[in-house]
Amino acid sequence: MNPHGNPHTLAQARRRASLDKRQRALTALATLEQQGKKITHAAVARTAGVSTWLTYTEGIREHIEAAQQRQHPTTLCAPTRSTTATLRTELELARQEIRTLREDRDRMRQAIQHQLGQQLDALDTRHLTERIDELTRNNQRLEDSLQQATDDNHRLHARVGTLETDLAAARTSLRRMIREENTNR
Q1: Which domain holds residue 59?
Q2: With contact defined as beta carbons under 8 Å apart, do 7 and 41 qualify?
Q3: Which of 35, 48, 127, 179 has the CB geometry, 3.0–4.6 Å to 25, for a possible disulfide?
Q4: Dihedral angle of Cα 22, 23, 27, 28, to the nearest 10 degrees
Q5: Is 129 inside any structural domain?
Q6: Is residue 185 domain-resident?
Q7: Can you tell me the mean pLDDT for 154-170?
Q8: Which stretches does the entry tag as region Disordered (predicted)?
């Protein structure tokens, strides 16, 4: 099972949400036009509760431009003070929205980093604990082997000492026998 959900279901949900936002924008446009309010991309976005970016997309932009033409059929002349003011207002709204989106992005990034850090800490701790246990067992095994080798070494040194003493005694005894044999002849 996919932990992030069914991709087909998620795609359908995104399509439904997109269609819903577009429908809200068109409904808001109709409402503004019926109320006789000035129609701008920012006003439609604010009324519909969607981003101004959506109001500039194909399928929405044309409706807004048509409504603007119906409100002011001779708007083909040079920009006036009100359109400059409108553009400034839309620019400020866009800047505010960008600031908000950046803050949201930063908050989400920080939350995800925190969550991933906790997950990594949990994974690393378990892995490190297992590794420490393994190294401790290996260390104990090596200490036991070293102790056994040290004990064997001491026993062998004692045995070598005994054998050297026996060898020296055997040599001395052999020399005596050889001298006695030579003197008896």
Answers
A1: 8-74
A2: no
A3: 48
A4: -30
A5: no
A6: no
A7: 94
A8: 1-20
Read off the pTM: 0.39
Contact 52, 97 (CB under 8 A): yes
> What's the chain's average pLDDT?
87
How many domains are contained in the chain? 1
Question: Is 117 within the bounds of a domain?
Answer: no
CA dist 46 → 25, 36, 41, 71, 155 (Å): 9, 16, 9, 19, 93
Please write the tens of the pLDDT for every residue from 88-133: 888 988 999 999 999 999 999 999 999 988 877 777 677 778 888 9
The answer to whether residue 46 is domain-embedded is yes
pLDDT band at 10 (very low <50, low <70, confident <90, very high): confident
Is the distance from CB of 57 to CB of 25 less than 8 angstroms? no
